[in-house]
Design goal:
alpha+beta; 6 strands; 19% strand
């Protein structure tokens, strides 16, 4: 199971910037890939990546520095839908602090749709549960985590391919500006 290669603060900022750029490219909320809600509930920001094909990542960032990330690769054999006895893969949530686990219980997080989970209580290091996933089974964490921790250049490369002609609504200079200077809540 992979974990983010950047700190919780860096991840949150990357997600905010990606969501802002996404909103500048696509005007319809339901077509956006990245979403960031800075005040989802008291003291908690929520972010979501949803590729529209059944794969997603949800994260909750608390103002005290704690973060939890839950991802779902719909084609993974770790998926509850791929198992004979439907259910979360054993150990995925083991060790997750109860306050963070409680966030995943919200309907928006889709608790059961999970193929990987990681968290940080100090904002710097990442932890995972005790799940034992065979080497020949992909939980989706490597490729899905790459999507949420892109820098400006990586986002530009992805957005040109993903949005095609709509990319020109913001262009490279617009994305570079958002990632460099930020915007409200970024």
């Amino acid at each position: 199971m992979s974990v983010p290669q950047i700190s919780s603060d860096q991840l949150q900022r990357a997600w905010q910037c990606a969501a802002i750029c996404d909103a500048l490219i696509i005007s319809e909320d339901w077509l956006r890939t990245f979403c960031y809600m800075p005040n989802w509930v008291d003291g908690i920001a929520m972010a979501k990546y949803d590729n529209g094909a059944g794969d997603n990542v949800v994260a909750f960032f608390s103002f005290d520095g704690k973060t939890v990330i839950k991802g779902f690769d719909h084609e993974s054999k770790v998926s509850p839908h791929a198992r004979e006895e439907y259910g979360v893969w054993p150990g995925l949530y083991d060790g997750l602090p109860s306050d963070l686990l409680g966030l995943l219980s919200d309907e928006a997080a889709e608790y059961q749709d999970v193929t990987f989970c990681c968290w940080s209580v100090d904002g710097k290091s990442w932890k995972t549960g005790s799940a034992v996933i065979p080497d020949d089974i992909d939980d989706g964490s490597a490729w899905l985590l790459r999507m949420i921790q892109m820098n400006a250049e990586q986002f530009i490369k992805w957005a040109k391919s993903y949005y095609e002609k709509d990319f020109d609504r913001i262009g490279e200079s617009g994305i570079l500006s958002v990632f460099k200077n930020g915007a409200p809540n970024c």
